[in-house]
Amino acid sequence: MKSADVEIGHVLRYDFLWKDEEARDHGKDRPCAVVIIIRDEETDGRRIMVCPITHTPPDDEYAVELPNAVRAYLGLDEAPCWVRTNQFNEFFWPEATIPYGLSRTPDGSFCYGKLPYSLRETIKAQNIKAIESGKSARSKRD
């Protein structure tokens, strides 16, 4: 998979670190939704921002539950899960290589699939709300 193949809404398997874990080198490999992509013309790569998908029920308003059909399509287990829309990991993805932290899904690819458009739009709206309200937490991973 090349950085040019990645689109907003793709769900990747990534070594995600929560903001309060930033001092650590490794987080937990988990499904993460791609929410922002910024093209870097100078280096021929992209800056990618992902939000984690977790089984832990949210304790605030910054989460979007994945419907059963979406979980099944992505190949995730049957337990309820949420995209945490106020937590971001940001990393650089060079065009020609796989970035640190990205790992293969159980089927051997790097991507579980892509979220439906309406769900992507809901996540985007919550991302914007979290950023504008100062409730977002971003961890740069490179």
Describe the overall structure.
Strands 1, 2, 3, 4, 5, 6, 7, 8 and 9 form a nine-stranded mixed sheet that branches. The radius of gyration is 14 Å and the shape is globular. The protein starts with 9 loop residues before the first strand and ends with a strand. The protein has two helices and nine strands, in the order E-E-E-E-H-E-E-E-E-H-E. It has one domain: SH3 type barrels. By secondary structure, it is of the alpha+beta class.
Overall mean pLDDT stands at: 92
Q: Please state the structural category.
A: alpha+beta
Q: What global shape is seen?
A: globular
Share of helix, binned:
10-25%
Which fold name fills CATH's third level, the topology?
SH3 type barrels
Please give the largest β-sheet: 9 strands, mixed
Number of domains: 1
Strand percent estimate: 35-45%
Number of helices: 2
Any low-confidence stretches, pLDDT <50, length ≥5? none
Distance between the termini: 19 Å
Number of strands: 9
CATH top-level class: Mainly Beta
The ordered string of helix (H) and strand (E) elements is EEEEHEEEEHE
Oligomer: single chain
* Corresponding CATH architecture: Roll
Please compute the radius of gyration using only Cα atoms: 14 Å
